[in-house]
């Protein structure tokens, strides 16, 4: 059992995460209906406003708060409870992040920041929106440094020992986050804030987008790595076995630190001002970042098979039947992983220079991120929710809620399958993303493209509605686990915090030498970014004034 004060900290983070989840998913529901022209929004709301709220609240706020809750709980569990300084920093982090979130949300709701979660210039939001985002990042840094401080203190006390796998992975994730944020902090502080508050008239659009994507791609791995932590460390315990290979797991996280950064240009392959050499280089490096995921896939299959065979499964696939399908903590993780197969394959298509011409800025990309962050990541967080909240609140996870959890996971999978398939197909047929309903001026041949059973905005809306139902079911389960489910009487009946045993006897010491890895990461960043960024600043295109198009 972790200390009460650390539990409280984690619970506050989860609480804020789920408030963002409620508003964000409701905006998603509205969106799918606007896009198939069956809903007219009231005058005070417009499509781009709800699209911005949806993206910011789910992709940035829900994920970040949930991730920090998971990391806080796991670090306290594996390294011991936090000292006063760590707690203080983590609380300052929580409140700064919450204030930043509130500022940004208020600006979006009041219609002063309909710039979507990527806030591409020259769209111009109120300066208070960018300030809110800056506070959000600063807050996450406080919490990150608090957790890193806890790690360093543990290492000092346990000289020469390997850190527990969970703590190691947390450290890698936080380093990735801190280095990634440097890009977005640079553009917000030096470009957006002076521009939005009227100190400068114009903005260098190309530079701002490049700095954003320097951050934006590692951001997706900041979502993914905590999910991988649950796959590597939590899942084996749930299915009754050990981590397949401690060194493989650690090394895959190191590869993410190295290759997450020098790849941001694959989001800008159609950006005219970047020389094709730099795009080519970053595309090649993008293919390197696939390797740790394939290592993870190999490791997961091996873990499943070992566990299934230990339980008596025979034949080529007999072990699959022995896995604990009735345990929703496991079935949700498994479905999450299944979704990542087409999700990752779509990523490879996006990253391929020529194919990107076809899919860029279409609904295909929206389909892609719903089956990466929207399912593998989000469903892993749901799986974690099912045991982490009762563990922290000291409540039971009663049978009727477990049944509901199965329905919730099933409906999420069905809704997402329908919605994301429709999005992928519509995108291939040319439906643009980041746009409200388009009737193509009643053009008949354009309308025909969108009348297939799956390539249809109605299918997308049906999927979206099922997803919203599933989201509300999840909120019901969360509220019950937080406040209603019966308290356990005896600590031994407490829901388990599953951490699998990990054998470090073959793990190489240099994997724990962070200086080497951060050094190589910096060298790769300099190689991929120094010259193109220098060029963008030295030979800057004429800046753009701001546009408020809504
Ligand atoms: Fe992506 C756009 C390329 C992974 C999220 N991506 C986005 C956007 C988001 C996003 C949010 O190159 C939109 C941004 C925006 O608003 O503009 N993506 C990739 C590549 C990968 C990738 C190469 N993306 C992710 C992940 C995300 C995510 C993960 C969130 C968590 N993505 C792109 C590109 C674009 C893009 C371009 C820009 C498009 C454009 O033009 O705008 C790779 O990391 C993928 C590697 C993964 C695999 C899959 C292997 C998986 C296997 C199954 C796993 C199974 C396991 C075990 C572990 C190669 C093999 C299962 C066990 C069983 C028994 C089943």
TrEMBL record:
The chain crosses the membrane at residues 12-34, 54-76, 88-109, 129-153, 165-192, 212-235, 247-265, 277-301, 330-349, 369-392, 404-426, 458-479, 514-534. Gene3D superfamilies: Cytochrome c oxidase-like, subunit I domain. Keywords: Electron transport, Heme, Iron, Membrane, Metal-binding, Respiratory chain, Transmembrane, Transmembrane helix, Transport. CDD domains: ba3-like_Oxidase_I. SUPFAM superfamilies: Cytochrome c oxidase subunit I-like. The keyword Metal-binding applies. PANTHER family: CYTOCHROME C OXIDASE SUBUNIT 1, CYTOCHROME C OXIDASE SUBUNIT I. Belongs to the heme-copper respiratory oxidase family. This is Cytochrome c oxidase subunit I. It comes from Siminovitchia terrae (Bacillus terrae).
């Amino acid at each position: 059992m972790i200390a009460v004060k650390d539990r409280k900290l984690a619970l506050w983070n989860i609480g804020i995460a789920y408030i963002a989840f409620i508003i964000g998913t409701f905006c998603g529901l509205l969106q799918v209906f606007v896009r198939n022209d069956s809903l007219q929004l009231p005058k005070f709301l417009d499509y781009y406003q709800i699209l911005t709220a949806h993206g910011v609240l789910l992709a940035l706020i829900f994920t970040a708060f949930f991730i920090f809750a998971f990391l806080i709980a796991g670090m306290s569990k594996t390294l011991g409870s936090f000292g006063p300084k760590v707690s203080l920093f983590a609380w300052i982090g929580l409140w700064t992040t919450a204030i930043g979130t509130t500022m940004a949300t208020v600006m979006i709701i009041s219609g002063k920041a309909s710039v979507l979660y990527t806030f591409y210039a020259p769209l111009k939001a109120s300066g208070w929106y960018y300030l809110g985002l800056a506070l959000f990042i600063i807050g996450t840094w406080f919490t990150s440094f608090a957790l890193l401080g806890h790690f360093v203190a543990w290492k000092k006390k346990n000289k020469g020992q390997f850190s527990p796998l969970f703590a190691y992975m947390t450290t890698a994730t936080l380093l990735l986050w801190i280095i990634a944020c440097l890009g977005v902090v640079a553009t917000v502080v030096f470009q957006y804030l002076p521009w939005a508050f009227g100190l400068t008239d114009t903005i260098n659009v190309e530079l701002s987008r490049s700095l954003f994507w320097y951050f934006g791609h590692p951001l997706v791995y900041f979502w993914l790595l905590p999910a991988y932590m649950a796959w590597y460390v939590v899942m084996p315990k749930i299915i009754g076995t050990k981590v397949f290979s401690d060194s493989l797991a650690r090394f895959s996280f190191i590869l993410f630190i190295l290759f997450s950064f020098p790849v941001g240009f694959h989001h800008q392959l159609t950006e005219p001002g970047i020389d094709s050499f730099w795009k080519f280089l970053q595309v090649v490096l993008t293919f390197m970042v696939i390797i740790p995921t394939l290592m993870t896939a190999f490791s997961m299959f091996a873990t499943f098979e070992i566990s299934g065979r230990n339980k008596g499964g025979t034949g080529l696939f007999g072990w699959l039947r022995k896995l604990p399908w009735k345990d929703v903590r496991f079935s949700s993780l498994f479905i999450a992983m299944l979704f990542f197969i087409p999700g990752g394959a779509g990523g490879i298509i996006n990253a391929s220079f020529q194919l990107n011409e076809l899919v860029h800025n279409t609904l295909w990309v929206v389909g892609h991120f719903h089956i990466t962050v929207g399912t593998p990541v989000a469903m892993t967080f749901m799986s974690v929710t099912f045991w982490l909240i009762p563990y922290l609140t000291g409540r039971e996870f009663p049978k009727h809620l477990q049944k509901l959890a199965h329905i919730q996971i099933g409906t999420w999978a069905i809704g997402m399958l329908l919605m994301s398939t429709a999005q992928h197909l519509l995108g291939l047929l040319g439906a643009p993303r980041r746009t409200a309903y388009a009737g193509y001026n009643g053009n008949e041949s354009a309308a025909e493209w969108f009348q297939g059973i799956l390539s249809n905005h109605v299918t997308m809306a049906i999927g979206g509605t099922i997803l919203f139902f599933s989201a509300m079911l999840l909120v019901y389960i969360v509220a019950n686990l937080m406040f209603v489910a019966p308290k356990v009487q005896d600590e031994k009946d407490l829901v388990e915090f599953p951490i699998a045993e990990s054998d470090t006897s073959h793990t190489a010491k240099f994997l724990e030498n962070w200086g080497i890895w951060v050094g190589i990461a910096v060298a790769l960043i300099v190689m991929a970014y120094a010259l193109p960024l220098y060029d963008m600043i030295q030979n800057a295109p004429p800046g753009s004034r701001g546009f408020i198009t809504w």
